[in-house]
Design goal:
- The protein is built from 18 helices and eight strands.
- The chain has about 400 residues and is α/β, with parallel strands linked by helices.
- It folds into three domains: about 190 residues, Ribonuclease H-like superfamily/Ribonuclease H (Nucleotidyltransferase, domain 5), CATH 3.30.420.10; about 90 residues, DNA polymerase, domain 1 (Orthogonal Bundle); about 90 residues, DNA polymerase, domain 1.
- It has a six-stranded mixed sheet, with helices on both faces. The chain has a two-stranded antiparallel ribbon with strand order 7-8.
- The protein is flat and about 65 Å long.
- It starts with a strand and ends in a 6-residue tail after the last strand.
Length: about 400
């Protein structure tokens, strides 16, 4: 396998032809995210079954590569590919078409998720990959041979890893599970850029309509300010401070800086902008205010039900050798209990009752809530000591 750093456009275009001929490519990136609105792409690593290359995006126009990610003909293999997906969305405003993520795939083959690249390659292929350049400043040039070798290791083994995973998943009837999860990863990255992304701020659900209007104004201003100044938005205004301002609604600089956390030089420079945001939100007529989030209709039995369901889910995942964390979270269990308790319609099914998750645990969890399933300890020394049985079934 020949390795190279590509810094000429012609060589890059030739390699892209190789990628199209191969129909599959491993993809990874090195970037710097601490000081800019969007992460700065500093290096692109690509590998076909024949060779691996590193591409210098400071010297090469990557348009052909983004076309490949969108063409639907080439399988693009990533590991923990959130940032790789974000770069595609940033440069094309479109979803990648055939993305597969070996980290997600491994979560459907065993209980460990998420696995680092080093541990995953060791587990799947039995090969050792070293992490020696984790503190590298990838925007500095020239890159050393050691840095390039480290970067290439991130893609050298990804294709054989996916091929082994794919064969196993297909044999077990889980390949469609994996593809559903790859699409969900892309959905989540797209949702970050949607018009309602402000509704995912921590603490936002406890605000009133007027407070939500303030938060929305501040969120939009912060995003534009970050883009204009090319700075991370949380450096402009932290999330927790944004929520605090939405609650306090200061209308003067004196009120603005009453909070100790607000006394920072950077915030003093934008004090007038912040106050303008608050005043715009306060001037909105009531019929233009965001609707408040519905308070969760939780019963006193909900925590108990969630704990019982968590035991059932953990036991089911252990039986199938699946990652519990990938299948469902405590939040997913709460949503299931509330959906059932509130007699919500079938078309509003929670995540654990849809798609492959319904195959794995949907019927079990619903039957547990319905009282159709009993729980007993079969053998405390067994790998799976708990047994869930249909009520009335004769114990063996």
């Amino acid at each position: 396998m020949s390795d190279a750093l590509i810094s000429s456009q012609r060589e890059f275009e030739d390699f892209c032809d190789e990628v199209r001929d191969a129909g599959i490519v491993a993809y990874d990136t090195e970037f710097i995210s601490e000081n800019s609105y969007r992460p700065k792409l500093c290096l692109v690593q690509l590998a076909t079954p024949e060779r691996a290359v590193a591409v210098d995006p400071f010297e090469v126009n990557l348009a052909t590569w983004w076309d490949i990610m969108l063409d639907g003909d080439t399988t693009v293999v990533v590991h923990s590919g959130k940032e790789e997906t974000r770069f595609c969305l940033t440069h094309t405003a479109q979803r990648p078409k055939k993305l597969v993520d070996v980290q997600i795939a491994e979560g459907l083959r065993g209980s460990s998720f998420p696995l680092s690249y080093e541990r995953l390659i060791s587990r799947v292929l039995g090969k050792s990959v070293q992490s020696t350049e984790t503190r590298t400043d990838w925007q500095r040039r020239p890159l050393t041979e050691r840095q390039i070798e480290y970067a290439l290791d991130d893609v050298r083994y990804m294709i054989p890893c996916w091929q082994k995973q794919e064969a196993w998943l297909e044999k077990q009837g889980r390949l469609h599970w994996a593809h559903d999860e790859f699409e969900r990863l892309i959905d989540e990255m797209e949702a970050e850029r949607s018009d309602d992304s402000w509704t995912r701020l921590s603490g936002i659900r406890r605000l009133s309509s007027r407070q939500l209007a303030v938060a929305k104004e501040l969120f939009s201003w912060r995003d534009k300010e970050g883009a204009d100044r090319n700075q991370p938005v949380r450096r402009i205004l932290r999330d927790d401070l944004l929520i605090d301002l939405a609650r306090r609604q200061p209308q003067s600089e004196e009120e603005l800086f009453n909070s100790r956390d607000m006394n920072r030089q950077g915030l003093r420079r934008v004090a007038a902008d912040i106050i303008d945001c608050v005043q715009r939100a306060l001037s909105l007529p009531k019929n233009q205010l965001p609707k408040p989030f519905e308070a969760p209709d939780s019963s006193t039995e909900e925590p108990v039900l969630c704990k019982i369901l968590a035991i059932a889910l953990a036991n089911r995942c252990a039986e199938l050798d699946l990652s519990h964390g990938l299948v469902g979270s405590n939040g997913d269990l709460r949503n299931l209990v509330r959906w059932y308790s509130n007699k919500c319609p079938e078309d509003a099914r929670p995540r654990l009752m849809r798609g492959w998750r319904a195959e794995v645990c949907g019927d079990l969890l619903r039957d547990v809530i319905d009282g159709k399933i009993s729980l007993r300890v079969a053998d405390p020394n067994s790998e799976y000591p708990l047994v869930f049985e249909r009520v009335g079934k004769t114990a063996k």
